[in-house]
Design goal:
The structure is a single chain. With 210 residues, this protein is mainly alpha-helical. The chain is built from 9 helices and no strands. α1 packs across α4 and α5 packs antiparallel against α7. It is elongated.
């Protein structure tokens, strides 16, 4: 009897550990959105989750590892909300529009909570190390996906063959950065409308003749 129960208990232990770690990361992600990655600490997360510091430390081992885990979780959720749904749209301009629309939807929810990509860039732009590297890698993966969508739009003949894909991707990214600044910092109520108009102008300027 005991030999049968022991493996079951052993298998439940790692599962419970993963669930606890997921709870900690979720709490840390919410806290980082409010106070930034730099504000995260083992003690702060222990207080929010009502766990002991040693309990939180057992799952991460260091503040830096906690910060990196938060960045990776943020990136995973970003992909689930923005990137993967857009893949259901046809290649070319429809997919590029879907990527931007999804990005705008996520941005609209982050005007109050903040974007870890943006706040993290401010905190770690001049601080080399694993946290900065993880942040930069996540942002570069996303920007590469956006650039690929622009290039596919050219391949499909939706954008002009001589359109500068790098410039288009750069300007789309710039729109999102300006939107965050205008909406979150300056509280400009027209910022969402301006960002959408900016995207429409970029596409109109680069669209291939019918």
């Amino acid at each position: 009897m005991s030999a049968t129960i022991a493996p079951a208990k052993a298998s439940r232990a790692p599962q419970k550990g993963q669930q606890t770690k997921a709870v900690i990361i979720d709490a840390a992600l919410n806290l980082a959105a409010q106070i930034g990655l730099e504000g995260l600490s083992i003690g702060a997360i222990a207080e929010v989750t009502q766990m002991s510091k040693s309990g939180v430390f057992a799952h991460f081992g260091s503040r830096e590892e906690l910060q990196i885990s938060v960045v990776r979780e943020y990136h995973a959720r970003f992909e689930q909300e923005v990137f993967y749904p857009a893949l259901t749209a046809p290649r070319g301009l429809p997919r590029l529009r879907a990527l931007f629309d999804n990005w705008m939807k996520r941005t609209s929810t982050e005007i109050d909570s903040g974007c870890i990509y943006i706040s993290g860039a401010v905190e770690f732009d001049d601080r080399p190390g694993p946290v900065r590297d993880t942040l930069a890698e996540s942002v570069n993966i996303w920007l590469a996906a956006m650039l690929r969508a622009v290039e596919q739009a050219k391949e499909e003949g939706h954008l002009r063959a001589d359109a500068d894909a790098q410039q288009i991707a750069f300007e789309i990214h710039a729109l999102i950065l300006a939107l965050h600044y205008e909406a979150r910092f300056l509280r400009n109520p027209a910022s969402m409308k301006r960002a959408n108009a900016g995207f429409a102008n970029i596409i109109a300027r680069s669209t291939a003749p019918a």
